UniProtKB/TrEMBL annotation:
Gene3D superfamilies: DNA helicase RuvA subunit, C-terminal domain (1.10.8.10), Ubiquitin Conjugating Enzyme (3.10.110.10). The gene is Ube2k. This is E2 ubiquitin-conjugating enzyme. It holds the Pfam family UQ_con. The active site is at residue 118. InterPro entries: UBA (IPR015940), UBA-like_sf (IPR009060), UBC (IPR000608), UBCD4_UBA (IPR042614), UBQ-conjugating_AS (IPR023313), UBQ-conjugating_enzyme/RWD (IPR016135). Its EC number is 2.3.2.23. Keywords: ATP-binding, Nucleotide-binding, Transferase, Ubl conjugation pathway. It comes from Portunus trituberculatus. Residues 183-225 form the UBA domain.
Length: 225
């Protein structure tokens, strides 16, 4: 009896494993089919025709995408183009895609170091009815309407709240350096070059100066202390 019971348990365990594998595979197929449809939706959208948003495959896997959004008008990001890394989980659309900025940006809700994003629809406010287009347009809207009281980058949020004109200039300068905006603040450029002449890398100099409100002495102390 004991031997037969053990055999029964083993067979049941094998069946359970197989069923779980099938379920996971089905979920992955749902995710890929959904993403293929949404990919086409973005490509054919009015926003894509106006070069406001775009998405492309990184390789052959529809779960690895590169998104693109244009900086909104009347913001320090106007004229900029921002690249996004989009990773789609097998549980999509029941869980949100993982999205981060590849292009460096100065914004309270986006990490100036990692590109991580603080946006509710990419976390607990995600709904299965949302799409890639929804995500891209929501991120574009975030650039125009920052939430400094719920920051991803506390240093940027502090500048945003305490010295908003300087924040706008700094964000515009980052857009110039990293995101294709033609014109940048010439005084900022001089300060960055001075630090580069001391052997500091361009982006490292930019981060130090930005986080020190463009105070050269404080930036030098931060870098060399």
């Amino acid at each position: 009896m004991g031997g037969r019971g053990g055999g029964g348990q083993s067979a049941g365990w094998t069946t359970t494993l197989w069923t779980g594998h099938s379920s996971t595979s089905d979920m992955a197929n749902i995710a890929i089919q959904r993403i293929k449809r949404e990919f086409k939706e973005v490509i054919k959208s009015d926003e894509a025709q106006k070069c406001a948003i775009n998405v492309e495959l990184v390789g052959d896997d529809y779960r690895e995408l590169r998104g693109e959004i244009a900086g909104p008008p009347d913001t320090p990001y106007e004229g900029a183009t921002f690249q996004l890394e989009i990773k789609v989980p097998e549980t999509y659309p029941f869980n949100p895609p993982k999205v981060k900025f590849v292009t460096k940006i100065w914004h309270p809700n986006i990490s100036s170091v990692t590109g991580a994003i603080c946006l509710d629809i990419l976390k607990d406010q995600w709904a299965a009815a949302m799409t890639l287009r929804t995500v891209l347009l929501s991120l574009q809207a975030l650039l125009a309407a920052a939430e400094p009281d719920d920051p991803q980058d506390a240093v940027v949020a502090k500048q945003f709240k305490e010295n908003h004109p300087l924040f706008l200039e700094t964000a515009q300068y980052w857009s110039h350096v990293h995101a294709g905006v033609p014109k940048g603040n010439s005084e900022f450029s001089k300060k960055v070059r001075r630090l580069m002449d001391m052997g500091v890398g361009e982006h490292q100099a930019l981060v130090a100066l930005s986080s020190c409100n463009w105070d050269m002495d404080r930036a030098i102390e931060q870098l060399f202390s």
